[in-house]
Design brief:
By secondary structure, the chain is of the alpha+beta class. The chain has one domain. The protein contains one helix and five strands. A hairpin with an 8-residue loop joins strand 4 and strand 5.
Length: 83
């Protein structure tokens, strides 16, 4: 898990390979709420690249600012393209 700050929001980033589903998952969780689950995730199918990545947002997490989502997507893209 890596802690990253976007503006004034601290986010825990969890990057892992899900061997059961054969995909890479990059989850985002609010750092100030350790009891919460991820509110968004980028999923890349096994063998895929950034063009096959999908964004999943938990509808129960409430509103997330568009600027924060853009930052998270950019951060995830850097992680995916680095591997």
């Amino acid at each position: 898990m890596e802690a990253v700050t976007f503006g004034d929001v601290e986010i825990d980033v969890v990057d892992f390979d899900d061997v059961v589903a054969a995909e890479r998952v990059i989850e985002f969780r609010y750092r100030n709420d350790p009891t919460s689950s991820s509110f968004a995730a980028i999923v890349v199918p096994d063998g895929g690249d950034w063009s096959s990545a999908l964004l999943s947002v938990d509808p129960q997490s409430g509103d997330v600012s568009a600027a924060l989502m853009a930052d998270l997507i950019g951060f995830a893209r850097e992680l995916v393209e680095a591997k």
